[in-house]
Automatic annotation (TrEMBL):
Phylogenetic classification of the source organism: Bacteria, Bacillati, Bacillota, Dethiobacteria, Dethiobacterales
Residues of the Bacterial repeat domain: 32-99
Pfam family, one: Flg_new_2
Superkingdom of the organism of origin: Bacteria
SUPFAM superfamilies: DPP6 N-terminal domain-like
Protein name per Swiss-Prot or TrEMBL: Bacterial repeat domain-containing protein
InterPro entries: Bacterial_rp_domain, TonB_box_CS, WD40/YVTN_repeat-like_dom_sf
Amino acid sequence: MRRKVGSGLFILLILFVFAQFISGCSAQYEVSVEADPQGAGGVTGGGTYEAGESVVVEASPLEGYEFAGWFIEGQKISSEKSYDFIAEEDVALTASFTEEEQLSRSVEFANEQDHGGETLQVVDEEGSIIFEYTFAEFKDWAAENWDDIFEETPAFMDPVYPKDLYPFFLDTATLSPDENKLAFSVHSYFAASYMSFVGVVNLETEEVTLIDEENDGQVDEFLWSPEGTYLAYTLTTAVGEGFYLTVDNAGSMEKEFTLSGGDLSEDPDLSAEDTFPRFRNVDWSESEERLYFTADIHLEGEFDWSIDPQGTDLRKQSDP
């Protein structure tokens, strides 16, 4: 009888040790990634992961293709090129790519200047002019509407009016993704300082509107959001290149926010001028939910950031 009890205890001990061993070995899951169609882009992040481990898969479309989303068994799970999740089961992800639509319209400048022209033209594939807008027309329109656009007259030391604008459109003019809107910028110049203004032309109605706030600096380059809701651009001042980053709402024609180096600096005593920021690699997420960019802040280094279109949720990408 004692032998039987002893044998039973021994078996129980073996089972306990085995159970502890099994519980200490976490499950592993396979994550596979592929591109559809093959050759349209690169995909990374596949492999073997421990249960509960964080997984990040990334898609990079090649020239001529756009990223359409991550799919599992035909169901779309993310519109972002970089998709993260927790390993809980074996999963096969497909990065879907589509061929980029070739633009049928383009922007040209007549009477070219060093950085723009006196006449904006939108032309089709055959080079026929679809829309033409001269600076003289804009100046006449601005003279009639200036006081209605701005709650307070734009000013450096003195008020700025249409007569103070340089008589040409900057070469930043660009079409919206659906090619139905044309964004343009003009600027004034006082004592080594710039003040610029952003406008949008609805090519279907030929209605012209200006954003209701001026910019400190000269517009470098526009970047429409994927749906054409927002305009992002950097601004150059006499101090440095890419000194501000701005987002305007192209629907309401209102400024959402402007970022300076002072907004990103960890030193509260530094002014915007002290930080000498350089904004680079500006790019929208596919969903328009965030704007990504790189900022090089004087004496602090270069970091990747993202922000929502309203400017209320600024994140350093290296933060948890």
